[in-house]
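Need a sequence for this fold. Nothing fancy.
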């Protein structure tokens, strides 16, 4: 196993955990929230290594957060937002947002606009990933409800 990969995974776990502590997530949800964050980042890295591109990776990463966050919320009997918000931290386009501000401050509006478009595309990709996860969850529950009523 590559040491750089292991450092990234541990860093994502710690960052997710620290942000969860910062926003007062209950202690019994911390570990599972960190694991949801790591799983979503692994999906993001896998997508990027196979297909390239940060937008698709963020869609699938957010989809993973949506699905695993729902499973974690049901398992711990807690609100889903307790798991989704901290797990989103590794996918947030903070570096690109910093570059936007830097290039605006230095007067390089062309590069600022390029990075602003990246931030907008990543934010949209995250929203689409959460939307698709919610759609998949609702569809799953609807189909299982139909099957239960059909069998009964």
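Here you go.
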């Amino acid at each position: 196993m590559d040491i750089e990969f292991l450092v990234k995974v541990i860093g994502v776990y710690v960052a997710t955990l620290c942000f969860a502590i910062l926003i007062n997530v209950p202690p019994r949800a911390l570990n599972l929230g960190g694991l949801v964050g790591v799983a979503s980042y692994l999906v993001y890295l896998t997508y990027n290594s196979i297909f390239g591109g940060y937008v698709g990776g963020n869609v699938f990463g957010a989809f993973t957060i949506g699905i695993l966050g729902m499973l974690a919320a049901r398992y711990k009997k807690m609100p889903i937002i307790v798991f989704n918000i901290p797990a989103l931290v590794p996918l947030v386009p903070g570096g690109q947002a910093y570059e936007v501000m830097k290039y605006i401050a230095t007067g390089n509006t062309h590069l600022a606009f390029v990075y602003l478009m990246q931030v907008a595309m990543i934010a949209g990709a995250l929203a689409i990933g959460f939307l698709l996860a919610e759609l998949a969850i609702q569809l799953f529950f609807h189909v299982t409800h139909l099957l239960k009523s059909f069998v009964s």
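For context: The chain has a mean pLDDT of 94.
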